[in-house]
Amino acid sequence: MKRLQLAAGALLCAVHLGIGATEVAYLTEPSRSVSAKASAAGDARAYRLDAARHSCASYASRSYKGRLPPLIRGVVVVETTVDTSGHPRSVKLVRGPSHAPDVSVAVMEMIKRAGPLPAPTRFTGPVSFIEIWLVHKDGRFQLDALTEGQD
User: Is residue 7 part of a domain?
Assistant: First the structure.
């Protein structure tokens, strides 16, 4: 009985400390073969679509294709401000998963690294938009602007 209790305690400790857990790398480098094209969007909502297409193309291997499963790792809401040349000047976390802060950090860093985004040519100054990143447990993501839904 004592051995069973010790084994159970060791197992709980190992699970709690993450021993034997597989780590998922949420942060990767974007593809440098993707060049940012100018955006002809006339408003922030239309620009959001151009930025989402660019982000998905920059991280094509990480972009989730199809409908998402019912359970995902995290939902990250980010406000991004882009200057007239398409460089992300401000990336602010609006809301992130409290159980997985690493996902929020990775998403914000991915946005910065994907720059420059398409240049918002029809804007006289910076453009701001909010995007919702839906992140699967395997590290792939889907953006709300381009989502195919969820099962």
Answer: no
For residue 72, the 8-state DSSP code is: -
Sign of CA dihedral 139, 87, 130, 148: negative
Helix pair 44-58, 101-114: axis angle to 10 deg: 100
Q: How many domains does the chain have?
A: 1
Report the C-alpha gap between 39 and 57 in whole angstroms: 15
13 inside domain: no
What is the per-residue pLDDT across 51-88, written as a single tens digit (0 to 9) for each? 999 999 999 999 999 999 988 999 999 999 999 999 99
Strands 127-135 and 88-95: unpaired
Residue 63 structure tokens: 């972009």
pTM, two decimals, is: 0.79
Q: 65: domain CATH number?
A: 3.30.1150
* 128 assigned to some structural domain: yes
